[in-house]
Specification:
Blueprint lengths: L2 H11 L6 H16 L8 H11 L18 H16 L6 H8 L7 H18 L24 E4 L4 E3 L25 H7 L5 E3 L5 E12 L17 H19 L4 E9 L8 H10 L1 H6 L2 E6 L4 H9 L3 E8 L12 E4 L6 E2 L10 H17 L2
Parallel strand pairs: 4-5, 4-7, 5-6, 7-8
Antiparallel strand pairs: 1-4, 2-3, 8-9
Length: 378
């Protein structure tokens, strides 16, 4: 059985009870459209009218003269054609259809559904590209020495018990020495701490390090001007930009799985309502799993507080920042590592020397590959 079809059926039954029939109809329609099955679309009102007028069961419509159990020649032809299509098809659904069901956008208003679908399809297009970067390491074998900042922290299991250590590795049983009445000081816990008699978990000598990394994407308010479709473009510029961001998040999570990654999506807002509220909602749907894990955060920031916000996020942690805007003027900020401007049909990166090409999507592909290669190499 098609594994995507299994996940789709689970997604359908995960819908609210009153939405299940509509979700099932969406699934059947996408299968029929994807496989180009021979079928006739009839309005539900017409079918109900026929049932009320002729008072016959639905299977009897169109075959009143056939004997029970004996299909007509037309039915046999349709069955044979359908079986032939099923045998030659590798999958009933594609990933975009599945995500529409799992993320519950299939039953949303048509404009929002189409925008979500276009982002998913173009994101998958970007993710299928080959990235020129070092191969994935099975596991980093770096031995810790003195950890001076928050970029790295030790990982691995505990191997023994010692009377020296940090509070994070204190045995929970040692908390029993604390007196419930804190007015009595020092209590047994305090005395044992001073005498170094408390027990701590300790690691072996081979402590491995896990790297912390943050990626910050800043969306300028003037991106609303990028809601336009160029000649020869499959979708709007802003849709491609959102697909680019989604693909980067998905691919970095896959390629840097051994690092502790945090993604911050900051939307600049100078007044109510947020100019990019529809795009924010779409990214919130696309990054639902990451948000639930705490790896992705979406926030709204006033433009005059952007520098302060970035400084708080950076601190001593390895951090990469990409600003997406419509005009180049917004790139005048020393804290921004890269600025992607959408003011022209070809996306422009502030710190790259990518040559423009005639193919529209190839320009976006080169931008994606440049950013991924740069960040994976660090």
């Amino acid at each position: 059985m098609d594994p995507l079809l299994e996940r789709a059926s689970e997604a359908i039954f995960g819908q609210p009870e009153d939405k299940i029939p509509a979700a099932a109809a969406f699934l059947l329609h996408r299968i029929q459209e994807r496989l180009n099955l021979p079928a006739v679309n009839i309005s539900a009102g017409i079918i109900r009218g026929l049932l009320d007028q002729y008072e016959v069961a639905l299977p009897e419509i169109g075959e009143p003269e056939q004997l029970p159990g004996e299909p007509s020649d037309v039915s046999k032809l349709l069955f044979d054609k359908t079986l032939e299509i099923f045998r030659s098809c590798d999958s009933f659904l594609n990933s975009a259809d599945l995500q529409a069901l799992e993320q519950k956008t299939a039953l949303m208003p048509l404009a929002k559904y189409l925008a979500h679908r276009q982002i998913v399809e173009n994101s998958l297009f970007f993710q299928q590209m080959e990235i020129k970067s070092p191969p994935l390491a099975t596991r980093t074998r770096r031995v810790s020495s003195n950890i001076r900042n928050e970029d790295q922290y030790p990982i691995g299991g505990y191997s023994s018990i010692s009377n020296k250590g940090t509070f994070e590795s204190l045995l929970h049983s040692q908390l029993a020495y604390m007196s419930p009445d804190r007015s009595e000081k020092p209590d047994t816990f305090d005395l044992k701490f001073l005498r170094e008699e408390l027990f701590y978990y300790s690691r072996d000598e081979n402590i491995f390090l896990r790297q912390r990394r943050k990626f910050i994407f800043v969306f300028a308010e003037d991106l609303k001007n990028a809601r336009l479709k160029d000649d020869g473009a499959p979708v709007q510029r802003l849709i491609l930009a959102l697909a680019l961001v989604d693909a980067i998040l998905q691919k970095l999570t896959e390629r840097l799985a051994q690092d502790a990654l945090h993604f911050h999506l900051l939307f600049l807002r100078s007044e109510e309502p947020l100019e990019l509220q529809p795009e924010r909602e779409l990214l919130q749907i696309l990054q639902r799993d990451g948000i639930q894990r705490g790896a992705v955060q979406l926030e709204e920031v006033a433009p005059n507080l952007l520098n302060e916000k970035i400084l708080n996020l950076r601190k001593e942690i390895n951090c990469d920042i990409l600003l997406l805007s419509y005009r180049v003027e917004l790139a005048n900020n020393e804290l921004i590592d890269e600025n992607l401007t959408l003011g022209t049909p070809r996306p422009i990166l502030s710190h790259s020397e990518l040559e423009p090409v005639e193919d529209y999507l190839e320009n976006w592909s080169n931008t994606y590959q440049f950013l991924m290669s740069k960040w994976l190499a660090q």
